[in-house]
Sequence to fold (109 residues):
Amino acid sequence: MITLTEPAAEYIKTLLERDPSKRGLHIGVKKAGCSGMSYTMELIGVHDEPLLPFSQHGVTVFVSEKDLAFLNATQLDYINQGINKRILISNPQEVARCGCGESFAVSDK
Fold:
């Protein structure tokens, strides 16, 4: 399951309102970086790939079944620190992050 805080949901709603063709946020992972994996996020509309929906606070987050293995129990939050505004990903499966914070690793157990 992927969860959203209310601030994250409100932020994503503002992004979705800008483009009515989009239905939700797709979060995934890809092989990248020195730690092995990187998060991907994009607003999506109609999609061909079968995705699992998780809805909270009026927003739907989509994830593939394959990526859910790496993202299960992840929480998305929104932080606004001065000019820095971003979605913060808290993944309890992470065991390491690279120095720049762009990639992560999960336990192979």
About this structure: Helices lie at 6-18, 65-71.
